[in-house]
Design brief:
alpha/beta, Dihydrodipicolinate Reductase, domain 2, 2 domains, 9-stranded mixed β-sheet, 6-stranded parallel β-sheet, 10 helices, globular
Length: 365
């Protein structure tokens, strides 16, 4: 339950582990929420937190290099975690001991076994686990989900996805760009480029496609998965992957790319980043950050552009949504739920296996 002191906001929130650059974005949403307060931040290297400390005026007594001291002294209701992908399970276990709700930045985990362990440990605490996929908060994709739910294009039979950016070292929180020299210096030491820590474009971006794809498909799972990745010289992880998933309804394609010509939040590259959804009665093009979606139906086969829905609270960001769930005693559904993210994790794991073994992988029933 949230704290209910009249002299401060209801929800006490801490950010632990700043390895993923999205921590700054998530803390901004806490900072902007009228009923939330950043009561602590923690990372083993304090310099990694400096931008957030400055941006949100976090006082020194709320800054920690030891997560245990942070949790014991601040007694939060909710912890936001942004560790490297391969450490998601470890960090979820660590903070779960303190009886807190957890919002973890995508992807769910580095393996299905780890994802299942995270679900199990949080179930023991009786607290909520949510996985944030930032593309969920893009208006075009929420508009597309509404149109699908309304039956506008019939039953979804294909999902086509292409997404990525110039690369994870090209920007920091709030999409602040870095120079080419800064990127070259950061790349050799970035966990994003370390295989053992869950690096690579496939693990970074495939989860978006297959998790939101599962959301669009109303929870349906594929029968089998085939994936291939590039082999960049001097790197131990991929920067480009293509995954084909076979469903009962046919084939869907999910492509990830670090190295797009431009970042989609600045200028859409070609191919465009986002989704094309094919249904039995129509199609929808839903591109990242664009003000419209394109709808094609039998009544309008030439297609037409529809303005994206204006997103309103609590559907503008993960903090709004999760706090609304907690305040109304309901579990996150669809977009942030462990159930949908688990299916995405299963597909991503099959894709990794397929790419490594150069064969098609069946998903267990």
């Amino acid at each position: 339950m949230p704290s209910n002191h009249a002299d401060r906001p209801s929800w006490r929130i801490v950010g632990i582990n700043f390895a993923h650059l999205h921590m700054g974005d998530n803390l901004r949403k806490v900072f902007e929420h009228p009923r939330c307060e950043i009561v602590g931040v923690s990372h083993d290297s304090p310099e990694e937190m400096q931008d957030s400390i400055a941006n949100f005026s976090i006082p020194p007594e709320r800054v920690f290099s030891d997560y245990r001291a942070c949790l014991e002294k601040t007694k939060p209701d909710l912890v936001i975690l942004c560790p490297p992908t391969a450490e998601h399970g470890q960090w979820t276990r660590r903070v779960a001991e303190y009886g807190v709700h957890v919002l973890i930045e995508k992807p769910f985990a580095a393996s299905l076994a780890e994802a299942d362990a995270m679900i199990a440990v949080m179930k023991l605490t009786g607290k909520t686990l949510a996985i944030n996929w930032p593309l969920v908060w893009v208006a075009s994709h929420q508009t597309t989900k509404r149109l699908i739910s309304e039956g506008t294009i019939g039953d979804v039979i294909e999902v086509h996805y292409y997404d990525g950016n110039r690369g994870p070292c090209w920007h920091t929180a709030d999409k602040i760009e870095k120079t080419a020299a800064e990127v070259a210096a950061a790349k050799p030491n970035s966990w994003f480029y370390q295989l053992a820590r869950g690096g690579g474009s496939l693990l970074d971006y495939l989860g978006y496609g297959v998790t939101l794809g599962t959301w669009f498909l109303d929870g349906r799972r594929p029968i089998e998965v085939t994936s291939t990745v590039d082999d960049p010289a001097g790197l131990e992880v991929d920067e480009h992957s293509i995954t084909v998933a076979r469903y009962e309804t046919g084939l869907s394609k999910f492509e990830t790319r670090w190295g797009t010509f431009t970042d989609p939040w600045t200028h859409q590259p070609q191919p465009k980043c986002g989704f094309v959804i094919v249904g039995t009665a129509g199609t929808i093009s839903s591109y990242d950050y664009e003000p419209t979606v394109r709808l094609q139906t039998r009544e309008c086969p030439e297609g037409r552009d529809l303005p994206c829905d204006e997103l309103k609270s609590p559907n503008q960001d993960p903090v709004q949504y999760l706090i609304d769930c907690l305040e109304n005693d309901r579990q996150p559904e669809g977009r942030l739920s462990p159930q949908i993210s688990r299916i995405g994790q299963q597909i991503a794991e099959a894709a990794v296996q397929s790419a490594c073994e150069k064969r098609t992988v069946l998903l267990p029933a």
